[in-house]
Amino acid sequence: MKKEYLKLDKVEGALIELSDVHGVKYGEVVEVENNLGEKVLGRVIKIYKNRVVIQIFGTTLGMSINNTKVSFKGKPFEIPLSKDILGRVFNGVGIPIDGGGDIYSDKFYNVNGRPINPVSREYPRDYIQTGISSIDALTTLIRGQKLPIFSGAGLPHNELAAQIVRQAKIKSHGNESSNFSIVFAAIGVKRDEAFYFTEEFRKAGVQDRLIMYLNYADDPIMERIIAPKCALTAAEYLAFEENQHVLVIMTDITSYCEALREISSLREEVPSRKGYPGYLYSDLASLYERAGMTKDAEGSVTLIPILTMPNDDITHPIPDLTGYITEGQIVLSRDLYQKGIYPPIDVLPSLSRLMKDGIGEGFTRGDHPDVANQLFSAYSKVQDIRALAQIVGEDDLSDKDKKYLEFGNAFEERFLTQDLYDSRDMLDTLNISWELLRILPKDELDRLSPELIEKYMPGD
Predict the structure, then answer these.
(1) I want to staple 73 with a disulfide (CB 3.0 to 4.6 A). Which of 1, 29, 50, 259 is the partner?
(2) Which of 357, 391, 418 is the last residue of a domain?
(3) What is the number of other CB atoms lying within 10 angstroms of the CB of residue 383?
């Protein structure tokens, strides 16, 4: 039964508070109508005895504590979903904004998601080819994984996100899967950034397998909290009811966390590190853990959250907590970017913890694990030798060290550097890797078996 109230106790920012309320539930949807007849939605975010706090998805400007009608709907925040959502663009609360009309469905889905029973989870297998060598070879994205990208202000994470959307392919035992779709959520982005994304996807012709959720920087702060949940709800629907393999890309998680901090401050909660709420870890986990595979469904949800590290500080609470929840990270380097390298992926602090289970014979190629280990090892030595060269000078280095410097420069120029519209097949990436390893003396290839060296470097 719908309950209606006509008097508020307080209006503060995007929050309203009222008392003498009974029988409401946490997360319940609320419709608020001011004395001009304008309606906005909200949801219950705090209940204390007979007092409730409601966050509004919109503006509270001009809202009076008197003659404001508050109607409790008796249900959580839900969005209608069907296969018609493919190719559509929605705002942060799941309302279509592309002029294509409403989504009509007899099913509405709770944006808080459907918890996956840990017992029913399937271990992630198979890889997703992004067409980007530094990701595919060294931090391979596995279907069902959550692999964040750690970036910084001014770095080209938007370009990288758009490139992954354009080029991504699901590979199952070497074959490309056709039941593949992408959910893209832009959280707190500027309008020129949103225009860039929509134009890139339109020119690439990927709209028929893409769903976009756009939350602009000037949209109400509460929409920023709901946008990633709407995107993940759509992904769960496609994966677990339509048997699609879904890749979810969300940018920028930092904007989402800043919104959490602002709301926490309005609620007068005790702050934790750098003013963020103490429940930041569990809140991020409630998003990230919605990725995965289950034994009773053919589909899967793979998640790439993108976050900008304030002051490039990887120990900041947002990347720090994200790293605890997710299965690795891809780190963008400002030094590489300033050298003109795109994408500026720093392979040494980057890793994919599930990579070993989705590469090798039957997945990519038998030499992939050993080649990846050798590239990591060699490039790591390059950093040490570059530091030594700054002290003693490059001319005084040994011939072997000079070979490593040659390898390092070639690795950055031919392997890391890649055109924005250049999609490399996994086999092409591995072949480039072998060409680079030929620069080094054979006795330095200590991560490769003699059989592999003989097979891929005959006569060298």
Answers:
(1) 29
(2) 357
(3) 12
Owner of token pair 């793979």? 302
Residue type, 2: K
When computed from its CA atoms, the radius of gyration of the chain, rounded to whole angstroms, is 25
Which of 53, 76, 99 terminates a domain? The answer is: 76
Cis peptide before 252 (omega within 30 of 0): yes
Is residue 299 within 8 Å of 183, Cβ to Cβ?
no
Q: How confident is the model over 148-185, as pLDDT tens digits?
A: 999 999 999 999 999 999 999 886 655 666 789 999 99
Amino acid letter at 245?
H
The H-assigned helical ranges of 168-241 are: 191-204, 221-240
* Phi and psi, residue 127, nearest 5°: -120, 160
SS3 53: strand
The whole domain housing 452 covers 368-456
Helices 368-392, 399-410: axis angle to 10 degrees equals 120
Q: Kindly report the CATH number assigned to the domain that includes residue 234.
A: 3.40.50.12240
The answer to whether the CB of 395 falls within 8 A of the CB of 110 is: no
Tens digit of pLDDT for each residue in 427-445? 999 999 999 999 999 999 9
Same domain (yes/no): 246, 288: yes
Query: CB atoms < 10 A from the CB of 427, how many?
Result: 12
Query: What mean pLDDT do residues 337-357 have?
Result: 94
> How many domains does the structure of the chain reveal?
3
Backbone phi and psi for residue 168, each to the nearest 5 degrees, phi listed first: -65, 140
Label residue 459 by pLDDT band (50, 70, 90): low
Beta bridge partners of 128: 141, 170
Q: For residues 342 and 320, what is the distance between their CA atoms, to the nearest angstrom?
A: 25
Task: Report if residue 362 sits inside a domain.
Answer: no
Contacts of 433 (CB under 8 A, 6+ apart): 137, 371, 375, 415
Separation between Cα atoms, residue 280 and residue 90, nearest integer Å: 26
Please provide the distance, in angstroms rounded to a whole number, between the alpha carbons at the two ends of the chain.
80
Distance CA 399, CA 434 (A): 21
Give dist(CA 292, CA 113) in Å, integer.
Answer: 13
Amino acid identity, position 312? D
Same domain for 86 and 190?
yes
